[in-house]
Design goal:
- With 388 residues, this protein is an alpha/beta fold.
- Helices cover 38% and strands 17% of the residues.
- It has a 7-stranded mixed β-sheet, with helices on both faces.
- It is globular.
Amino acid sequence: MSTYAPHDVVFTRGEGSWLFDADGKQYLDGLTGLAVCGLGHAHPAVTQAIQSQAGKLLHCSNHFRIAHQEALADKLCAVSGMESAFFCNSGAEANEAAIKLARLYGHRHKNIDKPSIIVMEGAFHGRTMATLSATGNRKIQAGFEPLVAGFVRAPFNNLDAIRTIGRNNNSVVAILLEPVQGEGGICVPDQGYLRDLKAICEQHDWLLMLDEVQSGNGRTGQYFAYQHEGIVPDVVSTAKGLGNGVPIGACLAQGVAAEVLTVGSHGTTFGGNPLSAATGLAVISSIEQEGLCARAAALSERIQSNLASLVNDGLITELRAKGLMIGLDLGKPCAELVAHGLQNGIVINVTAGSILRMLPPLNMSDAEADQLVDQVCTLITQFHSKQP
């Protein structure tokens, strides 16, 4: 179906921070498949885990215990501060599980007939009907009405709006948000915002549910972005970088939220199968052993420092970043930069119309990071020189 408009490039292989097309041309990957391949391409440990498991057992269903799944649950809970995990195939499914969990919590623990969840303007949580309804983007919702009810929208990074909802709406059972809005334009909230949201949730007996699908797995300089604030939410969704290209998602929970989903209340055919779980284990082990959370933080500082000239020269209106989630606001539509980048051998993205977005590998070398910045600076300079 014509749901995509792909660029006329066919990548045939990848190696580290590089992609190669069918004609042998190489491209520096500043997007990693939309924050999926955080370890770059053909990472040795991930490749070995996939090859080894593929020769043993791909799938057996969740009617049976799966050793790798149990080990991955333990590993994820250890790095996240959570207590339990539900495995699925994508970020949308992980968020769908969180939404279902919140509704069950509202019915069973708060005796609310029609529980609602606070979600944020500018958010993106997926394209299933529930996650689409939770998303704060009318463009991608249009035509799919009626949307799923039960969501109350609030402006991102505005605590007063949340407090007002808390005073006037007795149906709320949870808040669902991204610690850093990715598709919304790399929107980073004020320091302390998540911590204050946690306090508000505790005051009202709400669940704090964080969508870390894009920001998790080391991308922001901590394993999860909420760890910058020193808090532990009630529910966390993760996917993308957890499989480094192999589809896997997880909904993690702690405290009362960890006990909400029970036998028969939710399920999936493929989630947490031996192949995806073995891959996830290899990814987490590699992030830890290679110190990639700290590496992401260091790379972010280097890249931001090298981009400062664009800000000083007025070529971008704002530089927004949290670790290796980096957005450059050009102040005007700039979708053409993606094609220009491909012509010049770099892979980037434009989101929210005017935001050039970079999501490079966590293990990119200093030289590769410098090259990426140099080429981006050239692209932006040329873009502005052609504007009327």
